[in-house]
Amino acid sequence: MLPELIYLFILSYFIGSISSAIIVCRLLKIDDPRSQGSKNPGATNVLRIGGKKAAAIVLIGDSLKGFITIIIARYLELGLLDLSLIALSSFLGHVYPIFYKFKGGKGVATFIGSLFAIHYLVGLFFSIVWLFVAKILKVSSLSALIATFFTPMCFYIVTNNLSATLVISAICLWIFYTHRSNIKRIISGSEKAI
């Protein structure tokens, strides 16, 4: 199954590199998200500059980037470790897109799509935690970080696969890295509400 994994790893990176936010904003004639708001090409920034409809489309598009290739991999009966590596590739494509000078988003929506494709219970767990925290604190980045923090534990409980959990943990650590500016604003109390 090594050739299939390599092909899907490459494919998932290129699919991950497609920016839903940039494409949707162009189609809907909204300002480039890289030049407005937080300047991040993600659903939260699009929500601020373009409204709920545009943000919902971006969220779905970014989630599908993580979902599609893993569904293909599952059809090919690749193992759980392989699925987690494909999730990593999609995530890296979103964060470091080859089509946009390797400057992309923060990877949360693409990660959620991957989680749902690998095991729906883990994806559901992440989504419920995000929604619960967002409802109370109304800060998107903090909601994502809290959900991200608990995801490796949930993933291991559900799958009982240490190797795949380590890859998922690496993605989660990377999400904290992509949110480093948000973390600084959260600490200082200047992070914007949803």
TL;DR of this structure?
The chain has 194 residues and is mostly helical.
Q: How many DSSP H or I helices?
A: 10
The portion of residues forming beta strands comes to under 5%
Q: What's the end-to-end separation, in Å?
A: 43 Å
Mean pLDDT: 93
Q: Could you give the count of β-strands?
A: 0
Secondary-structure-based class equals: mainly alpha
Shape: globular
Helix content: over 70%
- Order of helices and strands, N to C? HHHHHHHHHH
The number of domains? 1
For the report, how would you describe the main beta sheet? none
Q: Uncertain regions: pLDDT < 50 for 5+ in a row?
A: none
Rg to the nearest angstrom? 16 Å
Q: Care to describe what's here?
A:
- The chain is an all-alpha fold and 194 residues long.
- The chain has one domain.
- It is built from 10 helices and no strands.
- Helix 1 runs antiparallel to helix 4 and helix 3 runs antiparallel to helix 4 (52-75).
- The protein is globular, with a radius of gyration of 16 Å.
- The chain starts with a helix and ends in a 6-residue tail after the last helix.
- The mean pLDDT is 93.
Q: How is the topology of this model organized?
A:
Blueprint: H1 2-16, H2 20-27, H3 43-50, H4 52-75, H5 80-95, H6 108-118, H7 120-137, H8 140-159, H9 162-178, H10 180-188
Helix pairs in contact: 1-4, 1-5, 2-4, 3-4, 4-5, 4-6, 5-6, 5-9, 6-7, 7-8, 8-9
Provide the descriptors you would attach to this structure in a database record.
194 residues, mainly alpha, 75% helix, 0% strand
